[in-house]
Amino acid sequence: MEQYWKLGTSSVREVLESLPDDERVAYTTLQTLVYRLEEKGALRRVKKIGNAQLFEPAIDQSEHRNGLVRDLLELFGGSSRMLVSNLIETGALSLKDLKALQNAATSRRKKRDG
Questions:
Q1: How many C-beta neighbours within 10 Å does residue 4 have?
Q2: Separation of alpha carbons 38 and 36, rounded Å
Q3: Which residues pair with 49 in a beta bridge?
Q4: Is the full-model pTM beyond 0.90?
Q5: Which stretches within 8-94 are classed as H helix?
Q6: Residue 114 pLDDT
Q7: CA–CA dist 114, 107 (Å, integer)
Q8: Nearest to residue 55, comparing CAs of 40, 70, 67?
Q9: How far apart are CA 78 and CA 98, in angstroms?
Q10: Segment holding 41, helix H or strand E
Q11: Contact 64, 72 (CB under 8 A)
């Protein structure tokens, strides 16, 4: 999905060629994945040029990510504090990250209140 959000309307071949060498898979493997994403409603077929089918994202990237974050929070009982605590304990979140988050929260609060 990331490649389709980045490239927009593209064929399977274009997506495959846009991947770094170490992430490339067989054409048929990617084609199967694209068709499954279409079946699930994440991609939609928009046109055919020769033998190539062109697909585009059918879901918005930010809405998709928001849904993933909601699902992740559910794993922590809906508690963002428990999630952040876990990220700190596992080393996935650094002090520098926390400071950046604090600055972002302060900025957002100022915009909301100001």
A1: 22
A2: 5
A3: 52
A4: no
A5: 12-18, 27-39, 61-75, 80-89
A6: 73
A7: 10
A8: 40
A9: 20
A10: none
A11: no
- The whole-angstrom separation of Cα 25 and Cα 11 is 15
Write down the mean pLDDT value for the chain.
Answer: 94
Percent of the chain with pLDDT over 90: 85
Encoded tokens for 91: 């080393």
pLDDT digits (tens, 9 = 90+) for 6-42: 999 999 999 999 999 999 999 999 999 999 999 999 9
Residue 44 to residue 38: CA distance in whole angstroms: 6
Which residues make Cβ contacts (< 8 Å) with residue 64, sequence separation at least 6? 1
Q: Alpha-carbon distance 39 to 34, whole Å?
A: 9
